[in-house]
Amino acid sequence: MASVYNHLMKQTCDIEQVNQVDGSQSVVIAGLRCSYPFPYTYRQGMAGTNYDIQLLQVFTVLPDNGKIEENMRISFEEGSDFRIHSVNKWPAVKPEYMEILLHGEGNG
Fold it and tell me: What is the tens place of the pLDDT at every residue in 44-54?
């Protein structure tokens, strides 16, 4: 399965923790191999109303150290960064990658 997604890992990213007091960011994982972000849409239903949520999806290799969590930031080589919406190991049975959904327009 690994060979299927290895060709997507064309760049590196940094995972950053955000200080809740002053908003400063500190790198917790540097130089993580990852794919380029691509559009991801899912349909959410609530109280009889359906709406589409537009996110970006990126795959990374499993980090050797450090933990990736919701509300951290991910920054890419070209300078953009995004808030991490959710993190899932992929595939679920024998994880080889992290699927990360990104929220917002990105800075940079």
Answer: 777 777 777 78
Q: What 3-state class would DSSP assign to 22?
A: coil
Q: How many structural domains are present in the chain?
A: 1
**Using CB atoms within 10 A of its CB, is residue 11 exposed (0-12), middle (13-18) or buried (19+)?**
middle
Which CATH number is 37's domain given?
Answer: 2.40.10
The residue segments making up the domain with residue 7 are 2-107
Q: Which of 79, 40, 78, 80 is nearest to 59 (CA)?
A: 40
Model confidence over 75-104: pLDDT tens digits?
999 999 999 999 999 888 888 899 999 987
